[in-house]
Design a protein that fits this description.
The protein has a domain of about 90 residues: Beta Complex (Metal Binding Protein, Guanine Nucleotide Exchange Factor, Chain A), CATH 2.170.150.70. Helix content is about 5%, strand content about 35%. The protein is mostly beta strands and about 130 residues long. The chain is globular.
């Protein structure tokens, strides 16, 4: 695995991923919709020791919702970066500089998807709530 890099929208925060992503998929939950401004977010998981902030740690801010993983974002531009699952990091794939080396494998929280926009028929496994595993 070669490492890959990413950053927030303004570039104040940069990171490196040095381990392979273990899974990737689309989240359709209301929190992701409101956090991203999109109808779903595309994320990939990597072991925590395979993710590091290489520039701008002082700009990283964290929002800790009462019923979800802490969400890290840039305090300068507001760009979403990752969620912290403790032993894994959930990386926002739109922040990567290069190909992540993994394709989406699932769609979760379909019960929260808006009814006015069809979900693409891409053949991925679908979960009404959070996928397990």
């Amino acid at each position: 695995m070669r490492s890959t890099t990413g950053r927030c929208a303004c570039g104040a925060v940069a990171y490196e991923v040095t381990a392979p992503f273990t899974t990737a998929g689309y989240c359709h939950c209301k929190r992701c919709q409101r956090r991203s401004g999109a109808l779903w977010s595309l994320n990939a998981m990597v072991p925590s020791d395979g993710y590091s902030i290489v520039r701008g740690q002082e700009h990283v801010r964290v929002w800790e919702p009462g019923d979800g993983l802490p969400k890290a974002f840039c305090g300068v531009c507001g760009g979403q970066l990752y969620s912290d699952g403790g032993d894994y990091i959930v990386v926002r794939l739109g922040t990567l500089d290069d190909d992540p080396g993994i394709e989406p494998e699932w769609r979760q929280w379909l019960e929260s998807a808006p009814g006015w926009e069809p979900i693409p028929d891409d053949g991925l496994p679908r979960f009404q709530q959070r996928r397990s595993g």
